[in-house]
Design a protein that fits this description.
alpha/beta; Spore Coat Polysaccharide Biosynthesis Protein SpsA, Chain A; 2 domains; five-stranded mixed β-sheet; three-stranded mixed β-sheet; 49% helix; elongated
Length: 374
């Protein structure tokens, strides 16, 4: 099943009573929340997008029509969200093999999550698919059309969740590295958190990095430990530089450090890992990963985020902090009979020393294992 066989349903008909403001039209990055939901679906390659409307329909329709989505009117929106689900399911249309049901108040689900659900329909044909982040199920479920009659006839409690429980034996969890599948915006406090999450939307959180490494790519534990140690060192170097007046993005560097060896056992693992991370939707993180093995060190008194990652990686052997001399001394001794390899190692050493000297100049502290450990 391809994305073209799937219709996405945006549920946007409810009262937003706990919020106190109409959630689909709240501002997020200068645009209504519902725009981001539609944009994510479209970025995932799903052309058939439908929005269920009811409460404040007159205000919402101009926005949705400008987005080019189909409209489903739920006259019974006062009965709750499940009434909107039922309204959407009553006319799936010809050629639709599955419906993706996404409430408008869960606006930060990543396009790669939606693509992963669609791609897994081939692996699990005829199954309801639910995304799961580190073992916890979230939104949106992907429901094959053959389950629609059973959902339409459901008369129990707990809405869509209750209806889907009828088909537990036909439901498969799809592991994703997206904690936003668990985040719905119900209250003003949730909206405040949404705004904070949006600021960092272009990079994975620490827990998402964990899921990427362990769940999506099955990284070995030694690789995970190495990346965690590099992230620790990089964080301390970044903090020292920022205290000295630099404006490095600590979250960006942390994410790159936690993922930098994701393709450790692949040829050209820096470029391969960068490609993987870029495909997940994090091009800024990928840029840093691409140069963690070889970098053209800068000059002057500045230090870039990529240079911090490069230096931190050279200050960690497996999961132990070491000096540059210790790290490269071992490599030179190991390859002393291979002139080309020695030349490459010496080039990397010079780059690391250049960065280390500039960090020392800026922070007024020698970059060494005792200093990093504090």
């Amino acid at each position: 099943m391809s994305q073209g066989d799937i219709a996405a349903v945006v549920l946007a008909a409810g009262y937003s009573s706990r919020m106190g403001s109409f959630k689909p039209l709240l501002d997020l990055g200068g645009r209504p929340v519902v725009c981001h939901v539609v944009e994510s679906l479209r970025s995932a390659g799903i052309p058939d997008i439908r929005a269920v409307v009811g409460y404040r329909m007159d205000a919402l329709l101009p926005v949705l029509q400008g987005l080019g989505v189909s409209i489903v009117i739920n006259e019974r929106y006062a009965d709750g969200m499940f009434s909107s689900v039922l309204a959407a399911l009553k006319s799936p249309g010809t050629g639709v093999k599955a419906l993706l049901l996404l409430p408008a108040d869960i606006p930060l689900v990543r396009p790669q999550t939606l693509r992963r659900l669609a791609e897994n329909t081939a692996r699990f044909p005829g199954k309801i698919l639910k995304p799961a982040f580190l073992g916890r199920e979230g939104h949106p479920p992907l429901v094959p059309s053959e389950f629609i009659p059973g959902i339409l006839s459901y008369s129990g409690s707990d809405g869509l969740r209750g209806a889907l429980k009828l088909f537990a034996a036909d439901t498969v969890r799809v592991a994703v590295a997206d904690e936003n599948i668990l985040f719905d915006m119900d209250s003003p406090a949730d909206y405040a958190e949404l705004l904070e999450r949006w600021k960092r939307y272009n990079m994975p959180s620490v827990r998402e990095c964990e899921a990427i490494m362990k769940t999506l790519y099955s990284a070995e534990e030694r690789t995970v430990r190495h990346c965690a140690a590099v992230a620790d060192v990089a964080g301390k170097i970044t903090a020292g530089l920022n205290r000295s007046g630099c404006t490095l993005d600590r979250d960006l560097i942390q994410a790159a450090a936690l993922l930098h060896d994701i393709a450790r056992d692949k040829p050209g693992h820096a470029c391969e890992g960068a490609r993987w991370v870029a495909e997940l939707g994090y091009p800024g993180v990928a840029v840093l990963i691409s140069t963690h093995m070889d970098i053209s060190a800068g000059s002057g008194s500045s230090v870039s985020a990529a240079e911090v990652l490069y230096l931190a990686d050279k200050l960690v052997q497996e999961d132990r902090q070491v000096s540059i001399e210790q790290r490269f001394g071992r490599e030179l001794a190991k390859h002393r009979a291979e002139p080309e390899v020695v030349s490459m190692i010496e080039s990397r050493y010079r780059a690391a020393r250049s960065i280390e000297e500039r960090v020392t100049l800026l922070t007024g502290r020698q970059v060494a294992v005792p200093m990093i450990s504090q």
